[in-house]
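Hey,

The postdoc asked me to send both predictions to you directly instead of through the lab channel. I've kept everything plain text so nothing gets mangled by the mail client. Protein one:
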Amino acid sequence: MSDPLALVSVLAGVISLSGTVISSSLTLRDTVDLLRARWVAKIKRLEPYALPTVLYPLLSPLTDTLGIMTHNVLLASDTTTLDYRARRMASCSMTGVAAALVAQVTNTSMQQEFTPALHWSVSALWTCGLVLSLLSVYYSFLLHHWLAGFASADEVRRAFTHRGLVTSSRRVEGVPSLTVAARLWVPAWLLSASIGCYVLTLGLYWALAWKGWWGVGAEAGRGIGNRNVFICYILTVLGAVAVFTVPSAVGKILEDVDNLHLYREELKHVCRSGPADVPDPGVSAAKSVVGRNEQIGAAAVALLTAAEAHRSAGTASKGLADELDRLVDELARGKKKDVSKVRTDV
């Protein structure tokens, strides 16, 4: 009874999340603003590379990887950088193993009973899925081998930094490498594409076997059985996809709605002041703290900068960063605090 109860619980959670979005105050204007803000953020991430605008839609999936590289490598401490490399190497191992399993299953499925007599598209799609999974295994191995070759965090940063074609700007500090982002992203994408290709081909296989097209599968009353298998396939795919994609989509929407008001406030400020910079959520959060009291002055700005530096340096400085944040709050309330008394031996 545990499996049916678990399935009912998951479906109830999916329906509850969907109801949260439907019952929220999300309007058409909010949706348009969310899509615009997301697209503007992707454009801003790709602008330093001076690429043709027509390539932006093709490269937009890499923007998340570029952001992760910036925060975990270029602007991170040595410990965080090496930890990110270790996590990426572990991810390569898991991707390679999963892709090898998909390749084995695909190769076995190509020996199905009706496959030789069905339309060539079935064999073609299974062949494409097999090639994609094998390439995912190979690229995962190459990426793992490449990441293992770095001896220090500085070498990782140099490799992950963007290099321009112009001699005067061969290396752009603080900008992640677009080619490295593609190398990190491709193996997992090939694995996803191979799984999707396999699932799609499996449905096409049973659909053709059910209909008996090209004289296959319908003889001797087998058409009804193949139809039932195809119906079970449709229900399974829809249920499995909905259980994962619906909560993910709803969670992303709720996160965007939470940041929508902050984006609109910063956009109004940009329109009034005139600069062409797109609002940055991280900078906006710091400005909102300072904006609580305009009399905080340069001292609060210095404290915020120091707190962020200590927080980025690692967990050992987190206590000092929290103390600096507390000083900012006291300055905002008008209290006086001697900064020299702050403990620096946290």
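Protein two:
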Amino acid sequence: MWNVDDIFAVFDTKAISLDNFVAKLNNRFPTIQFTYEIKHNEQLQFLDVLVTRNSENKKETVTLRFILNDSHHPLQHKMVSFKFLIHRLLNCPLSKERFEHEKKIIKNIARNYGYSVHLIDKLIRKHTFKRTLYNSTTFRSDTDNSKFVSNCRYHMNLNMNIVTI
């Protein structure tokens, strides 16, 4: 059986010499052959994928298809896409300018689908408040605790005893 593990790492070549680094790795682990690739035109071949660096430094995950505000879907279904975008906005490390740019995009999406831009501000405040509250207390409700779940084979005596507990 043949198993190959690949690592994707980014180096500042001004601070580290790649040739020296790879030589040290190969000397340290003689049974493994380390190699490296250098990007060309902001692209890097990695396994069977061509990785391209863009100016946004993030993967596109939004299809820009949302439920219209005047549809008859439940409110929770309408809000889930905006909650996702706001969660990503608040949890991805962004510069202040990029944060404001992303927030503006979310508000434009809301406006285009018939929602009030104040709704986005309200969702951001709510999310921020919940996170602040959660981080400022050591008390956690019972719902925060993960339940222990386990699978086991059926054994008549054992399973009947577990059921009676």
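Summary for protein two, as requested: The mean pLDDT is 80.

Thanks,
C.
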